[in-house]
């Protein structure tokens, strides 16, 4: 019998037994078992391949494709069942490494056999398998290995791998290449997925890892300090990551990391953070930067792991700040006089903030939780006032020391650094409006008394405050500096006018100030000497010609003068205030005055005159004699020039105590009330209806310069209801509605302000100017 090409037909048994089995399969099994290299001569390979090809291409009923596919699987199954499986079973119980090495060897042999059989049956794989949608020969061989070998030894293999990994964790050296090969075998058994690897190797490994590190955790926590524990934890996490990279699938890394983190960090986090003698607070107190960094990085791995640590940091910083406050309180309790100038206290807060700001930046990588902890702690510290003077006033006075001449002796760089740090501290202050009021008064004194050390430094601090709080906060301060800049130009022009006016014997200058920018000052109507009055008339005539719509108000309490005084044959230049100069002029002819008589002559009240007379008659330089002698001024005293006055200096400065306070508390409270009411009106105008809690919350969010208590806001709401700007809901007493009055304002705001001029905080008027001698 022959084919259509007159070639002899190859019978199934003849082709299989004489060529394929004898020439290929037996040779493969023999060489693999003996451990020799498996290869075929080209001539032999072609003979076997051709036989397989012919058997698959013969016409039916002599096409043996189905039979060859079936015998291919049976051959592999028989070899695996009869040769490979017994060999592996013999190695079970002789040690994990022996079993794994045998499995590695048998897996390698199987791959070689599968490769050669696939080559011999290429035509079968290419056409018959594809046409009948059967598993490829390679996949079929893999399935046979999985069912015959893998399913029977996977548990022992997994146990052997876990045992080797535990040995490595204890510091022993293992064959990593062997473990990697077996891990790849598990991956191959998934036939395109990681299911076999995940369920048969990874899951048991994770459970074993959890158990291993659970035991380690109990051992470490019992005998190690927190830093030592964290060093071991960091090392363990690093080793597990390396272990996965070296011989496990990369998908295992996040899972095993989570298990280790949970066991050695999450379950003992509170214990580690609060451990006596080595917890987070102790590390902060001892400036253990490396240990804190390690703690931060390790706990940042955990979900919400940094919040407990940030809470401890916040409490610690707050405690450090409270220690500074307690130190100040102890000084006051010991009898030390309370002053608005306590640079030591302010510097201690600045240094504390600078220190822990650096810790937050460098140790905790400026993490937002720790920035919030720093903010919360310093808001509590900075707003905890001790003694008569608020921290806002102490901070403002500290700025005054830096900026005024004769204050702190600092270089330009040190001034800049100090201003940066005090503004950082200022940012935590709740009563920013109080600071602004005090600082504006002190700035005015520096500028008007020419005690400012540097105009550039003044501008720099105002610019920093502007960045923190906005233009509204610093507009008046900027206006003060602008007044002086404009005033210098006007002064030069007026000096020329004075030179043309030859009937005045005084050197006279005027500083014109915008009343809306500067603090309010008393303006006593003092009876001036004729020469002073003449100079004022000349200036008023010149000023009115230039600025017809301005009205001048003379504030003599802010002026200064140099008075030439002659005692015997010596003369002195007395540097005094304008009011002191007026008083000295009254004694020009050597008269003696009683206090009441002098008060009536000069048209001054007791409050103004007593400090002046005290400075002239009771101070270090007694240019006036008081009778009777004493350090207290009474209405029965009499005064006369001190004919015996002598001094080694020619220029003498005679200071006078100021009766002006650094700020007007009532004015601050009044401004706050107006600001709260303005915020309420703005909110209700936009929202129409709000509950009490919602309104209070929105008011607090809008007030940038201070944070009133809810009861204060409630009081302002009641005041607005009384004045019919708001009304309570008829259905709910805790809900407010916008009144018809506010609705009317929306339509005609000019009429609203004309009729109800209470929102001074909102309305900005054009004001006349103030001039000071």
UniProtKB/TrEMBL annotation:
Residues 390-617 form the Cullin family profile domain. It comes from the Eukaryota. InterPro entries: Cullin, Cullin-like_AB, Cullin_homology, Cullin_homology_sf, Cullin_N, Cullin_neddylation_domain, Cullin_repeat-like_dom_sf, WH-like_DNA-bd_sf. Signal peptide: none annotated. The keyword tRNA processing does not apply. The keyword Ubl conjugation applies. Keywords: Isopeptide bond, Ubl conjugation. Belongs to the cullin family. This is Cullin family profile domain-containing protein. It comes from Stephanodiscus triporus.
